[in-house]
Write a structure and sequence with these properties.
The protein has 2 domains: about 200 residues, NAD(P)-binding Rossmann-like Domain (Rossmann fold, 3-Layer(aba) Sandwich), CATH 3.40.50; about 250 residues, 3-Layer(aba) Sandwich (Rossmann fold). Strand 10, helix 15 and strand 11 form a beta-alpha-beta unit. It contains 19 helices and 15 strands. The protein has a 7-stranded mixed sheet with strand order 11-10-9-12-13-14-15. A 6-stranded parallel sheet has the order 3-2-1-4-5-6, with helices on both faces. It has a two-stranded parallel ribbon with strand order 7-8. The protein is α/β, with parallel strands linked by helices. About 45% of the residues lie in helices and about 15% in strands. Helix 5 packs parallel to helix 6 and helix 10 crosses helix 12. The chain starts with 20 loop residues before the first strand and ends with a helix. Bound molecules: uridine-5'-diphosphate-glucuronic acid. Uridine-5'-diphosphate-glucuronic acid (UGA) binds next to helix 10 and helix 12.
Length: about 475
Amino acid sequence: MMRDDAETSGAQGAGAPRPRVSVIGTGYLGATHAAAMAELGFDVVGVDTDPAKIEALSRGRVPFYEPGLEELIATHLESGRLRFTTDLAEAVAMSDIHFVCVGTPQQATSHAADLRFVESAVAGIARALSHDGIVVGKSTVPVGTAARLRELLGALAPAGIEAELIWNPEFLREGKAVDDTLHPDRVVIGGASDAAETAMREVYAAPIAEGAPFLTVGLETAELVKVSANAFLATKISFINAIAELCTAADADVNALADAIGLDGRIGRRFLDAGLGFGGGCLPKDIRALMHRAGELGAREVVGLMQKVDEINMSQRQRVVDLALQACGGSVLNARVGVLGAAFKPLTDDVRDSPALNVAAALHLRGAQVSVFDPAAGETARRTFPTLSFADGMRDTLPGADVVLLLTEWREFLDADPVELGALVRTRTIIDARTKLDVDRWTAAGWTVIGLGTGVHEPLRASVAALA
Ligand code: UGA
């Protein structure tokens, strides 16, 4: 049974109405996807169960930090192509294509993904369908989930209504979400019929016209493409962090090494920045969910590989804690520690599984007086670790510091004046846990810079004194 006033397929002649879009879940992924769909010319309704989030978004306020998103949402609230509601049934009845963008967090008691939200979103869509439609999963799910959701949709959709479930993994990065969504590297569509593929080609007509490859694959492959991409990125980071350990032992420089190997087109320089390792709401939980699912399916090599990647990654946090202990003479008890950064990476206020916040908390537990500043994540960090002390500005974290830790490489920190900051601290020692500082500038200002795989750089005056 097709909708009265429009058809879902883009195969009709010129002037056929465009499919209308609902986006279920308005977190980082969904809010960005909804705004991007409006930007691409579709009428979009974003749905979430959290009334506070919907109320904020409806007023043009994005409840998290994502550069450019607030402006895009404001533009399309104004253009009339975008609105938000908590009423799933109404949104589904008004739409032809339903994107599922809800979270799949790690379960509290296992490595497996918690699929409650995707299941309830698909069930909710199915029950609310009033005309034919396409349900497009975008959430990151363990392989095999989409096939089960397809059955669920079939079982719950009202009789006589045709509803197809396909998978369209999303590869956006936080901090660059708007650009990644509007200009994706590729569009992957899993398990689509000809009609659904035609509809997806219409939805993504603009990126396709820009040259984004459009790949059609099976349902299971689409699910695996996403987790495999994240697993590969995680592996690349843990690889360079393992090499960084070797560089430290051998007195080599991991940054120079990464530049050199990165010039090999087969390797590439991106995601070869050694340091504190990966965190956030995606890479850590995705490799654990992959480990869990691979174990269920008997793919033991994947389990072993991901286990090692995870171990190397988590050990980077301990390594930085150890460096801070060493810098303070073996104990941080009552030492003042200035921490620059709380977010899991720059350009976000996300502190989920943030290595920076972990390190700050670990030092606090060892009795240090830790003062943390992050340009965007102060509030989210405070909510997660209320016992830590948060400063209002970079300079406020530093007075009397025995050691400073650069844990998130915000531009503001990298561009800071080491001479000015040097006047504030008690000891000019900085642990550059992201290996991003201009070491010459900092050592010239009298700082000892301790890197991960880049050695310990003593200030110029020390070497001059040694020469005298
Ligand atoms: C990641 C993927 O990059 C996206 O493609 C994917 O869509 C997303 O997960 C997701 O699954 O939704 P994101 O979590 O936003 O995106 O962050 P990344 O930019 O991948 O960074 C992840 C972590 O790796 C950060 O903590 C970052 O500091 C760390 N990292 C990154 C390194 O330690 N070294 C590097 O060289 C690069």
